Known about the structure:
Blueprint: E1 3-4, E2 16-17, E3 29-33, E4 36-42, E5 48-54, E6 60-65, E7 67-68, E8 73-79, E9 86-92, E10 94-96, E11 101-102, E12 117-119, E13 155-157, E14 178-181, H1 183-187, H2 201-204, H3 207-215, E15 220-223, H4 233-237, H5 261-266, H6 268-284, E16 288-293, H7 310-318, E17 321-322, E18 325-329, H8 344-361, E19 365-368, H9 371-374, E20 376-377, E21 380-381, H10 386-393, E22 401-404, E23 424-427, H11 428-446, H12 455-461, H13 465-468, E24 482-485, H14 494-497, H15 533-552, E25 556-560, H16 591-609, E26 632-635, E27 654-659, E28 668-673, E29 679-682, E30 691-696, E31 708-709, E32 714-717, E33 721-726
Parallel strand pairs: 2-6, 14-15, 14-25, 15-16, 16-19, 19-22, 22-23, 23-24, 24-25
Antiparallel strand pairs: 1-10, 3-4, 4-8, 5-6, 5-9, 7-8, 9-13, 10-11, 12-13, 17-18, 20-21, 26-27, 27-28, 28-33, 29-32, 30-31, 30-33
Helix pairs in contact: 11-12, 11-15, 15-16
Amino acid sequence: MEKDLEVADFISQSSSWAAPPRAYPLREGAHLVGDGIDVAVYAGLAKKVEICFFSPNGQCTESFSLHRQLHGLWAGHIPGISVGARYGFRVFGHWDPDSGMLYNPAKVLLDPYARVLAQTPTLHPALYGKTVDKHFIPNPDMQADKRDSAPFAALGMVTPPDEKVDSHPRIPWNDTVIYEAHVVGLTKNLPGVPPELRGTYAGAAHPATIAHLKRIGVTALELLPIHAKFSEPFLAQRGLENYWGYNTLSFFAPEPSYASAAAQAAGPLAILAEIKGMVELLHTAGIEVILDVVYNHTCEGGKDGPSLSWRGLDNTGYYRHDSHHPGVLKDTTGCGNSLDFRRDTVIKMTLDSLRYWVEVVGVDGFRFDLAVTLGREGDSFNHNHPLYVAMASDPILSSVKLINEPWDIGYGGWQTGGFPIPTADWNDRFRDSLRSFWVAQPRAITAGTPGTDLRDLATRLSGSADLFGRGRVPGGRGIYASINFITAHDGFTMRDLVSYNDKHNELNKEDNKDGTGNNLAWNHGIEGDTTNREIQKNRQKTIRNLFGSLLLSAGTPMITAGDEIGKTQLGNNNAYCQNSPISWLNWDIDPDWENITATVAYLTELRRQHPVLRPQVFYTGEAISEGEVRDLEWFNKDGQPMEEYSWFDNSIRTLQMLRAGGKADGDALLVLNGNLTAQEITLPQGQGKDFTLVWSSEWENPQQEHIAYAPGSSSAQEALSLRLYFTSPPE
Length: 731
């Protein structure tokens, strides 16, 4: 089947030779130099590479053959090209799918370094390198498709020279509160945002949006992917789209559909300007911007997917594949392909992309989707992978927040706590432990099944030193390497977590087979929303328990957008394809949820005001200063130190956590009652100071009278509730 595909097979357009590039070292992408542009692209095994320029109506106006350079690069200088020129590549070489060789010059390929999209791709059989049927399934003969993909392909655009910005708020980790949101869903229904800006980049930085973020104490807005995307063909055929955006088309170009209509009409450069404006406005408000980024795979899917960029440039050079069967891809992402981070080209592209978004767009950090794939060398995960060493030693990237989603679906794919400094990890152990204690175990106990002991719960509340305290240097990765969360975009919302026992994903059109079945949820007696006031109150208290645990634990808290205002997805725990009211925040807030919002705002303010809630290092169990209590102590419901055997007793569901404030703050006492009945709680002696009750999940609204209790005094604490006490600070 191997064949060299000639230009005459596809196009009659003759090409000229580009001049040799003028600027060295070569920079990948298209950059203004002198009287035109220098262009460079990696196509490791190609025999010929052309750059083609297109008119606004999609016609190729001229094309130029590039010069082969060292290390798989092709480059040239094209005079007379200026900002706004629309371009793509045609690449010539072997066609042999069994060997992973998919060179097909009929396919116009997007420059992986294009800063903006001049044309977004349209799903069509011509996008595929192989001939496919109407369902986009390859024909058995695996022949090359000879249709020109230019009318349907993604095209890049030449942009002005990059201008660096530096307006980063540089918020310390111990002051950070993260809010995970989707650009569209965040403001699609927000009344204070003008209709033309709702669901856009501009809307995300509107004063009404910022006012809410500031009210609830957010210091970092973490946006679901805003890199340009292309939905999976199976979704498009069902009338759906990849709303979340975890199907990347470009690691440099932004997603155009999230821009305002005015920016879209003005063109790609206006879209980029809107994004930069969003970042600048958020920075002015003291809010950092973190991007969720998907470098683990691309939108080209499995081996039979479309040929949009990397696949046509060097399929086996960019993607992991079976070394014995190069036509077969190795997939540790569940998305059809995985980028190969053994390759210098892949690592360089990733680093260049990250630096671009920090230096030119101005963002303050990244959350790496399925980050274990980024650290794989073959089938194994390397805890000191070259990509992570490069980020840690890079003067730009080492200064921003780097957060891992520390798993993928491959061998050894769970690596929470296993990544190197200076990165942080989403702590799924925290999520599961707190969900279990407050939600799943009470459901099980109600059904007559015992709960579990308190060891893991205590470890999570105190910062997960077992996961993040390891290392040659004392303290390991540090207490704020634990990104604590209860919910995320993927899974139940907090409201649904306490309102549904099971997922309800029928609208995704996958027969409810998608999404996890391990939700650790409890509907409190009725599936879905209810007017039963008792159940409503129990659900609300459970949510206050969850928010209290999240915001009062040691580590970096992350709130999922809408949890504080009662966002429901009607039990859908995998709304990745729902660009609809299911995914958008509903800002029509009833009094119960206004109380929850006020509770979150109150708790984040307590956290901000009290250093005792934001420890700088892991607890040691020793006194901070002579004559003081130990930095962390655990007590039972009688106010006595926890006996060793008590930690293994699954019938014990009360716990008191006393954290010393040292010379900077008063002591903090967190009291958890996980029983289904009220408990008489005796406060510990501590340092002999009164304990003032400043918050309880028993309170529907946080603005309650603060009552002082003497050490050793007792009071009844409601079933399934959480309290926070402070002692007075040192004089």
